[in-house]
Amino acid sequence: MDELLVGWDAGEGSMTDSGYPRQVRAWMRGTKLKDAPVVYDDAPKEDVAAGQYMYFDRGHWHEIRYRSKTFYTSEHWWRRPSPGVPATEQGGFTKIPIQDDADVSTFGNSAIITLRSDWTPTEGGKSYPTGALLSCPMEQLMASEFGNMVVLFEPEIGPGGYPRTSLEARCGTLNFLVLNELHNVNCTLRILEHTEDGGWRQAPVASEAVPVGCSVSLRAVDSDSSDSIWVTRDGYLEPDSLSLGSAADGLTELQRLKSKPAMFNSDGLTVEQNMAPSLDGTQVPYFVMRREDAELDGSHPTLLNGYGGFEISMTPYYSAAVGAAWLEEGGTYVIGNIRGGGEFGPAWHQAALREKRHKAYEDFEAIARDLVARKYTVPRHLACMGGSNGGLLVGNMLTREGAGLFGAIVCQVPLLDMKKYHKLLAGASWMAEYGDPDVPEDWAFLENHSPYQRLKNICLADQSTWSCPDILFTTSTKDDRVHPGHARKMARALLDVPDAAPRVMYWENIEGGHGGAADNKQRAYMWALTYVFLKKMIGRGRVLGHFDNSSAAL
Q1: Which residues contact 11 (CB under 8 A, 6 or more apart)?
Q2: Residue 207: per-residue pLDDT
Q3: Phi-psi region of 19 (alpha: psi -120 to 50; beta: other; left: phi over 0)
Q4: Average pLDDT, rounded, for the chain
Q5: Strands (DSSP E) along 154-237, which ranges?
Q6: CA separation for the pair 364, 306 (Å, rounded)
Q7: How far apart are CA 18 and CA 208, in angstroms?
Q8: What is the DSSP string of 80-92?
Q9: End-to-end CA distance of the chain
Q10: What is the distance between the alpha carbons of residues 518 and 525, in angstroms, rounded to a whole number?
Q11: Residue of 269, 320, 271, 272 lying closest to 291 (CA atoms)
Q12: pLDDT by residue (tens digit) across 71-126?
């Protein structure tokens, strides 16, 4: 192949308002990039992005063009390309007849469709639920013939109308599709075999589930030639390991290849999963990592972490920093699986979109209260931490409950001023998640969970009894996604009111992008700073080393 489909900042009109390419060009070997002809230029600049790609999949060529209208909606077009023929000389594209909020890929000559909302392809015909995974022969799909549609995954609905299962990921080999399903945020694997007639049948799998507190990720070795799979496994207390297996034998004979060394002593530590009732009665799961022999007397320094956005699941993972700096020294660490995330599929995410954002914050508060009710901790020994959208989450904890529920807060690379977020860096691409503050109807609900406005208009208003927990803001000068101005102005506003906010700390790294650090040395410093702050603010001397809880100095 002598041609590359490419999008980049080629000057005026080539990028969207969100900062991503909106044009596609066909760059031929031996020519200058600037001379590459435009093959797609129809995406409005208000879209998030546009693109086009051609690929070979298990004996079949496909080419897909898309325009991402919002973060969650796209239009897709398909054609059967002729290898070696320039893109400018290929036949035309046909729009794929699926909903704009559905995703599409392929498995050989079958289309694989992921639903974010209920779908009834034909009037009066069969309906498919939100979160389902479907398969249909590609040519039949393009002809709007849905009679051979196969359901590969369908979520189970639990109490309250929310699914209790979701499809976390999938891995396709030459002949098999391995589904990584979450059942109440616990991983289960299921294997489907693609038959010669284009259908699917259930295949055996070695283990029904992965232990509580562990995760598995899968990657095909070469999906065009074998059924071999790289299997990576880790957990809150289990270091990453890499094994080689085969979908053909149901992953029954895994060859362990490598494992990272344990970075902290997990002896005597345990992982528990609890449910907390949110304000509307929804049961919200959360994981607790703690010392197994610790008496539940409310005295233990506890760190609650969450995210709750963009359909991102907070599944188990191994963290050397959490283990060495917190768990090993007697702290309790908690992960909240609140609405807005993807733990129970699209419906769980959509339950906290836009005007329903407060549901995520109510869930997080419910977990905090449940930790107190179960006597894991008390508010003065309880801290919360979150980054990016999680920074928005803990910014709301700061301005909703404040020191009444939390003794300390760590707010990392945060979104905080929701009046201006869409004007800064990649913010315009997130309006489908949060809303458009320039639309009065949207600002009416956005203002209620914009921490900067809440601080100014509610927390610091006359007669307010609000008080600020000890707080640490961290950000990066070179963050290219969330502007450091969010953290800067919030910290400044708090520093101006020392009576209400006596301990406000701020650290801005001049490098590092959205991760806050450019290399391991900077990353180590950032996390050391974070955990020293937490130990001093919510720690007990006998539990967390020699640190004095009354000291505010770092």
Answers
A1: none
A2: 64
A3: left
A4: 94
A5: 165-172, 176-183, 186-194, 200-203, 214-220, 228-235
A6: 8
A7: 42
A8: ---TTS-GGGS--
A9: 58
A10: 11
A11: 269
A12: 999 999 999 999 999 999 999 999 999 999 999 999 999 999 999 999 999 988 99
Long-range contacts, 435-440 (Cβ 8 Å, 24+): 435/354, 435/355
Buried b / exposed e over 90-126, threshold 16 CB at 10 Å, is beeeeebebeebbbbbbbbbbbbbbbbbebebeeeee
pLDDT of residue 552: 36
The structure tokens 């999906």 sit at 223
Sheet holding 332-336, edge to edge: 269-277, 283-291, 332-336, 302-305, 382-387, 408-412, 470-476, 504-509
Considering the candidates 388, 429, 450, 476, report the single residue annotated as catalytic: 388
Q: Is the CB of residue 352 less than 8 Å from the CB of residue 338?
A: yes
Residues belonging to the chain: 554
H helices, E strands: number in the chain: 10, 27
- Residue 1, token pair as written in the block: 């192949």
* Sites in the chain below the pLDDT cut of 50: 542-554
The reported pTM is 0.91
Indicate if 546 belongs to the active site.
no
Choice among 60, 183, 358, 514 that is catalytic: 514
Q: And the tokens for 407? A: 């003794």
Task: Provide the token pair at 537.
Answer: 């603010």
Those residues with Cβ within 8 angstroms of residue 249's Cβ, 6 or more apart along the chain or in another chain: none
Pairing, β 470-476 against β 60-68: unpaired
- Does residue 388 have an active-site annotation? yes
Q: Is-contact 358 340, C-beta < 8 A?
A: no
φ, ψ of residue 314 in degrees (nearest 5): -95, 80
Q: What is the pLDDT of residue 160?
A: 76
